[in-house]
């Protein structure tokens, strides 16, 4: 019977014995470990506290003052600014407007973006390998082009196109026989101002999210689409049952970003409707904040609006995460199906051999 000889090297490779109570012993702090934590945890934490947390706390403080913005004098007024805000009919209308934008713009934009992405990546022939339509690169470039143009330029361009007398929109509609739009003021009519603003939002952002979804769809295993095609699923069914579950996390992230962009809307709105539109029908919180701060010189009151807008944005993001979790979010179902399909295929190949 051979005796087992333990060498010093093997002994050094043994795990550290647990301390009393079953807990492992703490590793000693070395210069390398301290340097690592300071470089990769301490520095980012310091930057976050300095440029995120501290300004937010400072904003809460100024929101409780009557600071005018251009002098060091101010008085502490407590919650008076917040009380005044929710008694302000103009602010309440701006809050309803951004809520409408946050409800409509992300849904429409992501629906169109997903449609474009599916058509480009999976809209090819129904036989043979799953592939996109011909000239997919051209369509990606064309759809992404509006996002390359700065938002202020997009707003100014569409403001000219919506011009009631010399705009391209009315000119085109008149040419095709719709004479009722000969001098229609798209941005001057209360019923048309908000839909026109939403259209510009969608036009300017749909291309970026289409490219984002194209990249996400290309990461979905091709075996899933092949299995769906064998089972007789059409393109729409494949999109609902395979593509959407597989890129669920990307859709959630895009929805949050779009919702934040709609809630914080300023550039598009300021370029198209700098005065808030007819009867403040397109006024946003950021526009109201800008006017109160720089035109009325009530920076304390404007800061209170900014705090409320930040809270509304955080609540929106939390709701999106909550809905995603309640509807079965987390790890994508499509990826789980892909792993199951690959394991079944591997077992079948092993049995055949």
Automatic annotation (TrEMBL):
Alphabetized CDD domains for the sequence: TM_PBP2 (cd06261)
Superkingdom field: Bacteria
GO cellular component: plasma membrane
Topology in membrane: Multi-pass membrane protein
Residue intervals passing through the bilayer: 34-57, 98-123, 144-162, 196-217, 254-273, 299-323
Residues in ABC transmembrane type-1 domain copies: 95-320
Family annotation (SUPFAM superfamilies): MetI-like
Gene3D superfamilies associated with the record: MetI-like
Subcellular location: Cell membrane
Protein name: Lactose transport system permease protein LacF
Source species of the chain: Streptomyces smaragdinus
